[in-house]
Specification:
Blueprint lengths: L2 H11 L6 E6 L3 E6 L7 H5 L6 E5 L2 E5 L4 H18 L3 H6 L7 H13 L3 H20 L7 H15 L1 H13 L3 H11 L10 E3 L2 E3 L9 H20 L5 H61 L6 H10 L6 H22 L3 H15 L4 H11 L1 H20 L24 H22 L15 H4 L9 E2 L16 E4 L4 E4 L7 H4 L5 E7 L3 E3 L4 E6 L5 E5 L5 E5 L12 E3 L6 E2 L4 E5 L1 H6 L6 E5 L7 E4 L4 E2 L5 E5 L1
Antiparallel strand pairs: 1-2, 2-4, 3-4, 5-6, 7-19, 8-21, 9-10, 9-20, 10-18, 11-17, 12-13, 12-16, 13-14, 14-18, 15-17, 19-21
Helix pairs in contact: 1-3, 5-8, 6-7, 8-9, 8-10, 9-10, 9-11, 10-11, 11-12, 11-13, 11-16, 13-14, 13-15, 13-16, 13-17, 14-15, 15-16, 16-17
Length: 640
């Protein structure tokens, strides 16, 4: 499937555009904050082409796509971004609230959300910094030359101005003005605070601290700014907001941040760095062994982001990192070794192909394809990789291996470990070779259970429906061990929920419906403005924009009635709901009234798909063949 089709399918399976609060991506994953996680169809999402895995971590939905992530995100962003802007209106925000999370989940979701967007900048400049050491040693670019100085400026810029990079992503997480937040970051790194004696502002002491390379001060500053901005917005009259809101927000937040929060954040970062230094000084081998063995688990859960503040503090204070990045490199190479062994050992042609490519990706520091596509699915190779990572981590902890720049923990990062006059480079090579070989050998001698990796028999919804017969009858797979004759014989009949002319789903001008991505059924071109319940059940879902409604029967049949195409853009205008989520309903109950003229006035289609979203759990779906239907009278669909 094309990237756009995959993006459309993912959007549909996570509850639609209206369910997306925030979206971004890292090197291998799409990441979402959703308004309602229960709308995600995890099973179908996992079976979507290119999707390697689906995770909920800290209330955040992660869709692992591996090498396809950039292309899919580009198409997904084109679809979602225009709607994201519209959804910020006060009217819609009054109806939508993000799900509450516990404090730990919120913390890890926040860390992921602020560091992931800036990774390309710090990885690119970090790798250049490592290459500079290699250029200097080889004599290709001499230290002190004009060329070296220019390349050094490029390589150091993202770290020197790290608070400015972070200000953007922190502001987005706190949903405040990014440009005012970035201005606060500029204030923190302004040169007057470097080398000057302590300043004061009407008796308020402003400590002389350099905030370049720091993380926590700008996080605390933007957090404060977000509250001040909301407070000032409320008290300033609308006619002069554009003048006085930025002025007051900047003055108040800057003084409090410079005098209190930034110094506090600075010293917290320093203490974190000192704590890790002390831990690795007194128990380096043990600490490295434990962390190396657990790092893949931390990556899966997203907890590795908790080490980022200390990592950047290490670079600022010591000029190198000796914890997260070196041990990550060891852990990643262990995954590469285990996955390569699977590729050599497996008799499954498809798995061999996946394993070879995933091993190569892991070698370059991208382990999600290896973890989700190979080692975790087979389980034993994952354990072998943990053992390999632990041994490599123990070596790193024993010899206090250092990296002098932030880079993706793969073999391209090796130049960042070069240190003149020491064996630092030799020790990191020893660690990663040990991790790789140990994980490879252990996996090679393990008996792999590939029974669960047989090709998935579930039909892909986007392709299995293309050859449906003219009467829209779709025969589904039988349950394991059962023939069509001995499957459950229960039959469901749905009355037409709305009067009008029927239309095959294939002819609906929207690929999500025409490709039957979210369900099979039939569409109606309404001649009436009332939607009735087609069957007894419970209202399982009502969209905030009131244009779509979900019904679940007592036997688990899931029905979706979607009034119009792209009518979500109306934000509820012209729609009247007569039911609420979790209401019990009877066939014939009035659900929705809508203004047909208003839909047409906005140049939108009134075509109303009626879908069975879990139709693949049933053996047969039959849609009516007659041209016109009457609500509460005509049988529209039968399901066996």
């Amino acid at each position: 499937m094309e990237s756009k089709q995959v993006a459309e399918q993912i959007i549909a399976l996570i509850g639609g555009i209206n369910n997306i609060s925030q979206h971004w991506h890292c090197i291998t994953r799409l990441r979402f904050n959703l308004y309602n996680n229960e709308l995600v169809n995890v099973e179908k999402l996992r079976n979507t082409p290119w999707v390697l895995g689906v995770n909920f971590q800290g209330g955040q939905l992660q869709v692992i796509l591996g090498n396809h992530v950039t292309h899919v995100f580009t198409e997904l962003h084109k679809i979602v971004e225009p709607h994201t802007s519209a959804i910020t209106s006060e009217t819609l925000q009054a109806e939508i609230s993000e799900p509450k999370q516990n404090i730990i989940n919120t913390f890890f979701d926040f860390l992921s959300g602020i560091f992931t967007p800036i990774l390309p900048a710090i990885i690119g400049t970090g790798l250049l910094k490592g290459l500079l050491a290699l250029f200097d040693m080889s004599g290709l670019v001499l230290n002190g030359s004009s060329e070296y100085r220019i390349l050094y400026i490029i390589s150091d810029s993202a770290f020197y101005f790290l608070p400015i990079l972070l200000a953007f992503s922190v502001a987005r997480k706190f949903k405040t003005n990014e440009y005012i937040a970035v201005t606060l970051a500029f204030i923190l790194v302004y040169p007057i605070f470097q080398g000057e004696p302590a300043l004061s502002f009407f008796g308020i002491n402003i400590p002389n601290i350099t905030y370049n390379f720091t993380v926590i001060p700008i996080i605390l500053g933007v957090w404060l700014l977000s509250y001040i901005n909301r407070w000032v917005e409320k008290i300033i009259p609308a006619s002069v907001k554009i003048i006085f809101v930025p002025l007051l927000v900047l003055i108040i937040s800057s003084i409090i941040t410079l005098s209190l929060l930034a110094p506090l954040g600075y010293y917290v970062g320093e203490y974190l760095q000192q704590t890790f230094s002390y831990l690795f000084d007194i128990a380096g081998p043990i600490a490295g062994f434990i962390m190396g063995g657990c790092l893949s688990l931390l990556v899966i859960t997203g907890m590795h982001y908790a080490f980022f503040p200390a990592t950047f503090s290490n670079f600022k204070t010591l000029g190198y990192d000796f914890v997260l990045l070196p041990i990550s490199l060891s852990s990643n190479l262990a995954q590469a070794g285990a996955t390569l062994a699977v590729a050599i050992k497996s008799k499954n042609t498809k798995l061999k192909s996946i394993a070879y490519s995933s091993s190569l990706s892991a070698l370059f520091g991208i382990t999600e394809p290896a973890i989700y596509g190979v080692t975790m699915r087979l389980k034993k190779p994952f354990y072998a990789a943990l053992i390999g990572g632990a041994i490599g981590g123990g070596i790193i902890g024993t010899f206090a291996v250092k990296t002098f720049a932030f880079s993706i923990p793969g073999i391209t990062a090796l130049p960042t470990y070069i240190e003149a006059g020491t064996n630092n480079f030799m020790f990191i090579c020893l660690a990663i070779i040990a991790s790789f070989i140990l994980a490879f050998i252990i996996t090679l001698f393990l008996k792999l259970d590939e029974s669960e990796l047989e090709p998935n028999n579930k039909n892909n919804l986007a392709t299995s429906c293309k050859n449906a017969s003219p009467d829209y009858k779709l025969t589904k797979k039988t349950q394991a061990g059962m023939t069509p004759q001995n499957q459950p014989s229960a039959q469901y009949s749905l009355l037409a929920p709305i009067s009008g002319e029927t239309l095959p789903l294939e002819q609906v001008p929207d690929t999500v419906f025409s490709n039957k991505i979210i369900g099979d059924g039939i569409a109606i071109i309404p001649s009436d403005n009332k939607v009735y319940a087609p069957i007894d059940g419970t209202i399982s879902m009502v969209t905030p924009s009131k244009h779509a409604i979900g019904i679940t029967t007592s036997d688990g049949l899931d029905i979706l009635i979607h009034v119009g195409i792209d009518t979500v853009s109306l934000n509820g205008e012209g729609f009247t709901l007569h039911v609420n989520a979790m209401d019990k309903i009877k066939s014939g109950d009035l659900l929705i009234e809508f203004d047909i003229e208003n839909i047409i006035k906005h140049s939108l289609s009134t075509i109303t798909p009626v879908l069975i979203t879990n139709f693949d759990e049933f053996s047969e779906l039959q849609a009516i063949s007659q041209k016109y239907v009457t609500s509460n009278e005509t049988t529209l669909l039968t399901i066996n």
